Amino acid sequence: MVPFVDPLTGVPLEQRGDALWAPGLSEPLARVVDGIPRFVARDENYAESFGWQWKHWENTLSDRRNAGSAKREVVLHRTRFLDYDLKGKTILECGMGGGDDTEVLLDLPFAEVHSFDLSTAVERAVRHLDDPRLVVSQASITAIPYPDEAFDFVFCHRVLQHTPDPVASLRSICRKVKPGGVLFAHVYKLGWRNLMHFKYKYRWLTRRLPNRWIAGYVERFGPALHAVNRFMWRRNVLLKGLAYNFVPFQYHQDYGDMTETQLIELEKLNTFDGLTPRYDRPLTSRRFRSTIEGARFRIEHYNDPSFSPLFCTAVKEGPAASLAAAA
User: Fold this and answer.
1) What's 287's domain CATH number?
2) Which residues are CB-contacts of 186 (< 8 A; sequence separation ≥ 6)?
3) Which of these, 197, 199, 211, 216, could form a disulfide with 274 (CB 3.0-4.6 Å)?
């Protein structure tokens, strides 16, 4: 089992009672609360809107509890993980949220799945995920409590843009991949078309409002705004553009096999997700790619559309044997 370490020194930690200790320290490095090692103090948590979000929309993006959400198809399509030999390998999930992607990872033949998140959404994850291969912790993406070059796979989906420094966060996760190991990374794309999205016009206000206010807004007005968006998106290109730019509610024409009721719930969640995070910092394709290649990775699959998001799967160069091409 990949051990927890002091993120600053790399020294392995020892569990004593309900805490993890590093040698020589007079205070524990992490408390174990409800079975979860907590490397994050409450006043350090800039991502608590996500903790609130994943507890409020507990089942919306879970394949197991909400049939039709297509989570497995999205994750496997983006990562191309089925192109690699997964059996018996270790994976680190950086930013697990409430554990919806974790469900998919646990359906794959990994020997160990280590998942962490900065927010208290980890509590919702452990409530629904029961697997002896899974280790969950609450930790920061820039102070990951695992050794460098310890994992065969590292997975980071829909997280980087919500950190104070996405490039520093990306470099941090790159360090955890073994030579010959596989990285999957995803980030919102910085470009004028993406920045026209309604959320960037309203976030100056909405990210400062209480979470319950934004949730109340999407619950009350969501169905009506869904109908407005549907009319505008289907009418003509001009109205579609106006809806995308100004109507403050996310719209999905379809998503997997969801019913309209399920789709509206997803739109509520995604609207809340867009309006509430403290940080929303996309990267240019050039910066994203150069950061990964600068960390000694060879990019094997790269997605760079006109609209968000950017994502790629890459192999870390080094002396170890590659995990590639099982199929």
Assistant:
1) 3.40.50.150
2) 78, 156, 157, 158, 159, 160, 309, 310, 311
3) 199
Q: Which amino acid is at 97?
A: G
296: number of Cβ within 10 Å:
14
Ranges 64-73, 158-167, 206-215: which has the least confidence: 64-73
Give the tens place of pLDDT for each residue, 129-167.
999 999 999 999 999 999 999 999 999 999 999 999 999
Within a 13 Å sphere around the CA of 47, how many CA atoms are in the beta-carbon half?
A: 28
25-49 pLDDT per residue, tens: 899 999 999 999 999 976 567 888 9
What pLDDT is stored for residue 326 in this prediction? Answer: 45
Q: How many domains does the chain have?
A: 2
Give the domain range for residue 60.
14-190+282-316
pTM reported for the whole predicted model: 0.94
295 domain-assigned:
yes
Which tens digits make up the pLDDT trace of 102-130? 999 999 999 999 999 999 999 999 999 99
In terms of domains, do 20 and 85 share one? yes
On whether both 146 and 291 belong to a single domain, the answer is: yes
**Residue 159 shares a structural domain with residue 212:** no
Together in a domain, 155 and 300 = yes
1 class by beta-carbon count within 10 Å (0-12 exposed, 13-18 middle, 19+ buried): exposed
Cα 85 to Cα 89, 90, 115, 291, 322: the distances in Å are 8, 11, 20, 25, 9
Considering the domain architecture, whether residues 158 and 300 belong to the same structural domain is answered as yes
Instruction: Provide CB contacts within 8 A for 208, sequence distance 6+.
Output: none
- Asked whether residue 197 is assigned to any structural domain, the reply reads yes
Indicate if 242 and 107 belong to the same structural domain: no
Rounded to an integer, what distance in angstroms lies between the CA atom of residue 76 and that of residue 294? 26
Other beta carbons within 10 angstroms of residue 3's beta carbon come to: 12
Token digits for 180? 């010959």
